[in-house]
Recover the amino acids of this structure.
């Protein structure tokens, strides 16, 4: 079977690789093992091994979840220019964006699963078999859109890679409708994740219309920041040639998004602090200034805003944005800044003070952080493997070897993503 | 039916209930799916075997039966029987106590409501203690309590200024007043809407309940609740054997598993049998009025009609069935 050969050859590719690759995979596996070990303890003892409490019932896990959904959604920033604006340079690397989306969604789902008190009852979520509370529950929406996004991205990537493997050009009509669907879906997953929080009138800190737009804007910072760095690494390793123009486009998108994102933060700050009477303000006060002597997140949020501030300054100065060293610095700063701001600094203050006015602080435990790091390692490993197997397919280095080579493959396929042209 | 606030359990109500609460009546779900039914029966079959003397209380079969157990509202009477038996066996194994777990159904024509006289509450927290004992909460200090009594300064109702951990020599402290808060049993409960697996719902008698065997522990309901009424079992609750309350209800005070959410259920194991909730019974000042909202002659209806009543955070529109009033 051709499909079996496709997967067999892909898996064989995973086993090939130099010492750097082996070391990298080994390191990730080690991190996953450590996280898994502590997760077993969590399964045994319960979530008591985390820093969570009735007061702050969501924390580091859900913070990472919200952030990762943003990373997954931002794959759309490669998809739109590649397929709508016909940017050939971006189309050559669009599958890397898909790989990032797949890895990020899987990791995001993993973060929700480890946050569950009863992962053994996960099947209760399966429609018909369990009781899926759709469309009332926003969490049900999130399950639906995330798994749908995962399926869409896997299917599109598989179709395109399989066509390369067979040495045929992808049929436009077969994948393009799904690409369009995936674009809207990408915005959908992050909007639904924002609504998951903003739906709660019990939590004034989240309960505003700006949360959705803020999520999208900050996702379009963190996603490109990660992509810019990842594309350069992949380019250096020699898997795929990445055109400089791709990096520049992503840097520009990131600049504008970071400006918008910071503007949104400013707009919220004004609304919160101009009038001191609003309910919303207690959480914001806790976050930015500290409340009644409690100020655990104050250094966190100001660090995040400082990182984002420096990043946006670098990005706004053209020569600095075009210089790879300063651009990468800005990417690193903005990535960390958004992770801090949209993660912990968004999730935790929603719970402080509690609806009964109690201030109870939260600090993740060491076990919690190690488990979360294990999850991150799963995501990075998945991305690594997808790229490792996908790049040779994309380049046409890996193709069917059953002697039925199509003529087009030898001559270079016409239309669709042109694998050989990317290596010029 | 009248719930008298100052007398302990009103006996005249009890025979009233017993006529209609025999056996294991549950709401049959017309939309039961065949596959589920088969799965559920497989689980039930396992537990039937487990309850046979030859098997004793086999943990493996109970575990399998528990794993495949259906959601409460969808279980058949025999499946519920099996589930109740499993609960009793588990309590025997884990806590060393013989408990009785039933699923007394709601009474027709009853919707429960609660009213609390703020001018009578003196902050003794007897209700809190009674609740912990009645509802089989863990006994270490960090354990769950359904009732929180807030101490507030006279002249304001800003909850952010409230103190839940007040500990003076004597209460009431001059210049302070006390506001007990528990589940408001909202008529439009945001927690029920939030649950992704329908593990929590409102019963016909107005009590918002949790199926502890169906909850996946995502804690989204805790995020949704404006009254901080939902609590999570971060670890397995521990109760000394001699302190376990053996009279339990499936949707109420039965020992809870780790990793699930729970909440005040108006002492469903008592109130469905015509008794007062433990907190109302324990209150030494008579501040708590509990009763049937559909009974025009009930004390709670009198309070609602004749006293200045208010709801906490009524602006959120969740329509609490728990009111506060003053003399």
């Amino acid at each position: 079977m051709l499909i079996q050969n496709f997967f067999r050859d892909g898996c064989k590719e995973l086993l090939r690789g130099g010492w750097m690759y082996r070391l990298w995979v080994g390191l990730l596996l080690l991190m996953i093992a450590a996280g898994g070990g502590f997760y077993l303890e969590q399964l045994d003892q319960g979530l008591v091994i985390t820093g969570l409490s009735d007061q702050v019932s969501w924390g580091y896990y859900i913070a990472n979840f919200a952030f990762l959904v943003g990373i997954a959604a931002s794959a759309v920033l490669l998809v739109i220019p590649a397929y709508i604006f016909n940017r050939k340079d971006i189309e050559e690397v669009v599958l890397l964006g898909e790989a990032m989306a797949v890895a990020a969604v899987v990791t995001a789902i993993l973060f929700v699963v480890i946050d569950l008190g009863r992962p053994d009852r996960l099947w209760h979520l399966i429609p018909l078999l369990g009781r899926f509370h759709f469309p009332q529950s926003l969490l049900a929406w999130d399950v639906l859109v995330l798994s749908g996004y995962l399926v869409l991205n896997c299917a599109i990537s598989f179709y395109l890679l399989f066509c390369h493997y067979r040495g045929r050009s992808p049929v436009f009509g077969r994948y393009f409708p799904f690409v369009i669907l995936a674009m809207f879906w990408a915005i959908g997953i992050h909007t639904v994740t924002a609504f998951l929080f903003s739906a709660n009138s019990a939590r004034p800190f989240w309960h505003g219309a700006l949360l959705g737009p803020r999520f999208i804007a900050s996702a379009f910072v963190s996603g490109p920041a990660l992509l810019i760095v990842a594309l350069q690494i992949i380019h250096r390793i020699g898997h795929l040639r990445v055109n400089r123009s791709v990096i520049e486009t992503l840097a520009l998108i990131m600049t504008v998004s970071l400006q918008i994102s910071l503007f949104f933060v400013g707009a919220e700050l004004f609304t919160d602090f101009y009038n001191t009477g609003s309910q919303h303000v207690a959480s914001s006060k806790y976050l930015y200034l500290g409340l009644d002597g409690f100020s655990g997140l104050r250094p966190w949020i100001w660090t995040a805003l400082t990182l984002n501030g420096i990043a946006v300054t670098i990005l706004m100065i053209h020569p600095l944005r075009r210089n790879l060293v300063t651009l990468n610095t800005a990417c690193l700063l903005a990535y960390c800044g958004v992770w801090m701001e949209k993660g912990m600094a968004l999730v935790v203050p929603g719970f402080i003070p509690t609806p009964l006015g109690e201030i109870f602080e939260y600090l993740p435990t060491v076990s919690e952080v190690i488990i979360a790091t294990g999850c991150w390692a799963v995501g990075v490993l998945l991305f690594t493997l997808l790229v490792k197997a996908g790049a040779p397919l994309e380049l046409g280095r890996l193709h069917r070897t059953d002697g039925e080579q199509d003529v087009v493959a030898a001559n270079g396929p016409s239309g669709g993503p042109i694998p050989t042209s990317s290596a010029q | 039916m009248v719930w008298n606030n100052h007398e302990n359990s009103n006996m005249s109500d009890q025979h009233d209930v017993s006529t209609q609460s025999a056996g294991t009546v549950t709401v049959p779900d017309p939309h039961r799916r065949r596959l589920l039914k088969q799965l559920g029966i497989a689980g039930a079959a396992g537990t039937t075997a487990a309850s046979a003397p030859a098997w004793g209380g086999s943990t493996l079969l109970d575990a399998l039966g528990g794993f495949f157990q259906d959601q409460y509202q969808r279980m058949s009477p025999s499946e519920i029987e099996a589930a109740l038996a499993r609960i009793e066996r588990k309590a025997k194994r884990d806590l060393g106590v013989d408990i009785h777990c039933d699923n007394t159904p709601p009474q027709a024509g009853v919707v429960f409501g609660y009213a609390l006289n703020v001018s009578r509450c003196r902050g003794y927290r007897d209700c809190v203690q009674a609740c912990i004992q009645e509802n089989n909460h863990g006994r270490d200090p960090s354990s769950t309590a359904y009732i929180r009594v807030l101490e507030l300064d006279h002249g304001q109702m800003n909850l952010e200024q409230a103190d839940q951990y007040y500990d003076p020599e004597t209460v009431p402290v001059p210049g302070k007043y006390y506001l007990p808060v528990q589940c408001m049993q909202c008529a439009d409960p945001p927690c029920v809407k939030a649950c992704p697996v329908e593990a929590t719902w409102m019963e016909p008698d107005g009590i918002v309940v949790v199926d502890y065997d169906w909850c996946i522990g995502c804690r989204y309901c805790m995020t949704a609740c404006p009254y901080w009424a939902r609590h999570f079992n971060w670890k397995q609750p521990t109760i000394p054997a001699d302190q376990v309350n053996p009279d339990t209800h499936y949707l109420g005070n039965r020992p809870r598993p780790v990793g699930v959410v729970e909440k005040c259920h108006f002492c469903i194991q008592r109130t469905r049998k015509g008794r007062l909730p433990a907190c109302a019974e324990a209150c030494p000042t008579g501040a708590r009025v509990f009763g049937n909202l559909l009974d025009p002659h009930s004390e709670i209806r009198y309070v609602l009609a004749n006293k200045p009543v208010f709801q906490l955070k009524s602006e959120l529109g969740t329509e609490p069935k728990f009111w506060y009033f003053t003399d």
About this structure: The two ends of chain B are 24 Å apart (CA to CA). Chain B has two domains: 1-21+107-327, 34-102.
